[in-house]
Design a protein that fits this description.
This protein has helices at residues 62-86, 91-104, 107-120, 124-140, 145-165, 190-195, 214-222, 258-280, 305-311, 335-349, 385-390, 392-405, 421-440, 458-462, 464-470, 478-486, 504-519, 534-542, 555-563, 567-578, 583-594; strands spanning 26-29, 31-34, 37-45, 181-185, 201-206, 226-228, 242-246, 251-254, 295-300, 317-321, 353-357, 410-415, 451-455, 474-476, 524-526, 547-551. With 623 residues, the chain is an alpha/beta fold. α10 (335-349) runs parallel beside α12. The protein binds phosphoenolpyruvate and magnesium ion.
């Protein structure tokens, strides 16, 4: 095996010579699911379910069929529970698997299946197949990529129950040997991923999936390189084929030539050396060349990611997107369930702070069970805090859970999508009510719970001065600030080029917000994607930002980037950028002056497959 970024222990001496110089290499584009590079032999795993039995049942048999279904659900849930409790990798897989246990038992699916058995008089397998297909296709249409990705989860869950109904084996088994494999599959459920021993797998490649799919999340947690969404790979790869997996760029090369392998090895070695070096420096503070400390915190979606974030050297959680607790379920989570979840995160991260964002549901983050009216412009509709204020009981349930959780760590509450001071005041009143209700129940809580607001809407940036008077802190969500200030829908890939965070309009709104924070001694941080790119971070530091929150795995690289620059340089650059007229001018100026500084971190070295024509899975002519 080549080093995959996991260190060199356990390196497996495989024969990496090209299979045959006559076989043309094939380059497949996928999505970078988990960073790292690997070169090894493919082990193709058939995870797709075989055909589903279609059998009609007589009316008097329907009840038996319903019972058969219920027993299968219980058995699938206990199998998953069993895998969850034995998951070797840790909290991330375990919590995802626990979520699967709940999904298997989900009542919406169960009721639909039972209704189909009783009304359509079909066998349990057929009813389940139809119910799963309908639910999955509805989810797949969701504009929010996270929700759309959940359609695969529904299919996994359906497959687990189907496997029990048909007595099929559900565990993935590897050949008896010490070899490390590149696992290639149509898709891998968390249960399947967890049942693969990490000592036996050097990389994962799947045909479907995105960065937010659970395969990618688990792979990142296990630090196994992964490329997901590699359409059509199963048509091109066979067991034992030599494969190069580039989890940094999201590319897979089949039948690589000797020269390609040499270049890939070089790149893998460089990447490995860089990550080792950065990891060794994990506990160093993020300090600029001139000695200014920058606080780096992590963004998380799943509670179990908190551990991963800390392992990457995060100084706490700067954004916990709690809306992910509400998706994939028929009822919103209860106060008790939320309290237990938030408490777990706070205790895991204590004594470091955790900023929990109240749910940002609505817009493109659809939670079907809440029946939020979509309207023609969902991003401008009943979303986030607006939804909370329109449904005070729903909001109060979350606020009470947060207030209770505050007794167990350093909690800060953050309110998304604030567009006016009135909205923030109304939220503070509800928070005060939640505090009173918890006090009336004699439950413990922190004496003071800082409540800050997100600056994601231009009106909030314009009113930052007034908001800073009432908020404990301001947190700039640049993903939405770009969307709303430039009127570019962030969920439309074809518009991506128009929504640039280098735009001087965006920079001026950030500057204004920072000034407001300075005036009223309120911390101002950035938690959107701008906080994870060394070049935009340079601008943010120049604009006065000293606290950033980002994907945990970006932290080591960012620490290194920050250590190479001085605040003075950053300020000069930001001043020049603010004077520019267009996003292109800013981007060119920043890139020309600073990209060479960060060339290694920005991955500026030539790709190992440079010169290899891009293919959507077609064989390339070796000449
Ligand atoms: C943002 O808008 O920048 C942000 C951090 O929030 P989200 O991406 O969850 O909308
Ligand atoms: Mg946002």
């Amino acid at each position: 095996m080549l080093d995959s970024g996991r260190g060199s222990e356990g390196v497996n001496e495989q024969d990496n010579s090209p299979q045959s110089s006559k076989v043309a290499p094939v380059l497949l584009d996928g999505i970078a699911g988990s960073p790292g590079l690997a070169i090894g032999r493919a082990l193709v795993i058939e995870t797709r379910r075989p055909g589903v039995v279609h059998r009609r049942v007589a009316k008097h048999q329907a009840e038996d069929e319903v019972q058969r279904y219920r027993i299968a659900v219980e058995s699938a849930a206990s199998e998953l529970q069993d895998v969850a409790s034995r998951a070797s990798g840790g909290a991330v897989e375990s919590s995802i698997l626990q979520a699967y246990v709940l999904m298997v038992q989900d009542q919406t699916l169960g009721q639909d299946v039972e209704r189909r058995i009783q009304l359509d008089l079909v066998c349990a397998e057929w009813a389940l197949d139809m119910a799963v297909e309908q639910m999955a296709s509805q989810l797949a249409l969701a504009p929010d990529p996270y929700l759309a990705e959940r359609s695969h989860d529904v299919q996994f869950v359906g497959d687990r129950i189907l496997a029990v109904l048909s007595g099929r084996k559900t565990r993935v088994s590897l050949p008896e040997s010490d070899e490390l494999w590149v696992i290639v599959a149509h898709d891998l459920s968390p249960a399947e991923t967890a049942s693969l021993s990490r000592d036996r797998v050097m990389a994962l490649v799947t045909e479907v999936g995105t960065r937010t799919s659970h395969t990618a999340i688990v792979a990142r947690a296990l630090e196994i390189p992964a490329v997901v969404g590699t359409a059509g790979i199963l048509q091109h790869v066979a067991n034992n084929d030599l494969v190069v997996v580039d989890g940094l760029r999201g590319r897979v090369v089949l039948s690589p030539t000797g020269d390609l392998i040499d270049r890939a090895k070089l790149r893998a070695e460089r990447y490995s050396a860089l990550t080792r070096e950065l990891r060794e420096l994990r506990d160093r503070p993020a300090t600029t060349r001139c000695g200014t400390h920058i606080h780096l915190r992590a963004n998380i979606e799943l509670p179990a990611e908190a551990d991963v974030a800390l392992a990457h050297g995060a100084e706490g959680i700067g954004l916990y997107r709690t809306e992910f607790l509400y998706v994939d379920r028929s009822e919103p989570p209860s106060e008790e369930e939320q309290y237990v979840t938030y408490r777990h995160v706070l205790e895991a991260v204590a004594p470091l702070p955790v900023t929990l964002r109240t749910f940002d549901i609505g817009g493109d983050k659809i939670v079907p069970s809440l029946h939020v009216p979509q309207g023609a412009n969902p991003a401008l509709g009943l979303r986030a805090v607006r939804l909370g204020l329109a449904r005070p009981e729903l909001f109060l349930t979350q606020l009470r859970a947060l207030v209770r959780a505050s007794a167990h760590g350093r909690l800060q509450i953050m309110i998304p999508m604030i567009s006016s001071v009135a909205e923030f005041r109304a939220t503070l009143r509800l928070l005060a009510q939640a505090v009173d209700e918890i006090d009336a129940r004699n439950l413990s809580r922190a004496a003071f719970i800082p409540c800050g607001c997100m600056v994601e809407v231009p009106s909030a940036a314009i009113m930052a001065n007034e908001l800073a008077l009432e908020a404990a802190f301001l947190s700039i969500g640049t993903n939405d600030l770009v969307q709303y200030s430039l009127a570019v829908d962030r969920s439309r890939p074809e518009l991506v080029g128009l929504g640039s965070s280098f735009d001087p309009a965006v920079l001026r709104l950030i500057r204004r917000t920072v000034r407001a924070g300075e005036r009223h001694h309120r911390p101002v941080l950035v938690c959107g994607a701008m906080a994870s790119d060394p070049l935009t971070v340079l601008l943010l530091l120049g604009l006065g930002i000293r606290e950033l929150s980002m994907e945990g795995s970006a932290i080591p690289e960012l620490k290194e980037a920050i250590s190479r620059i001085s605040i003075w340089e950053a300020e000069q650059l930001a001043d020049d950028a603010l004077a520019c007229s267009t996003a292109e001018e800013v981007e060119r100026m920043v890139t020309e002056s600073y990209a060479p500084y960060f060339a290694d971190l920005l991955d500026g070295e030539p790709a190992f497959e440079a010169g290899l024509p891009r293919s959507s899975g077609r064989s390339l002519d070796p000449s």
